[in-house]
Design goal:
The protein is of the alpha+beta class and 84 residues long. It has two helices and two strands.
Amino acid sequence: MLRSVIIGTGCYIPPGVKKNSDFVLHEFYTEDHRRMETPQQEVVEKFKLITGIEERRYVPTDLNASDIASISAKLAIAPGNLIQ
């Protein structure tokens, strides 16, 4: 019988952070592409209330999914991260 064993864990947290307040100067549109008349600050606050999201993380443009996976995998097998 084949078995898999998890021997370590690793993760990559992107360095680029955008907080909800960064979107206050953006314009928001309805599903039918009309500009929303609701003040931007109110839209941002409602978004947080509905989703609980306060900030987003963005990966540098020179990285793709396989790069991120590679970084995480290397961290998972690094000596300090191995599970005893």
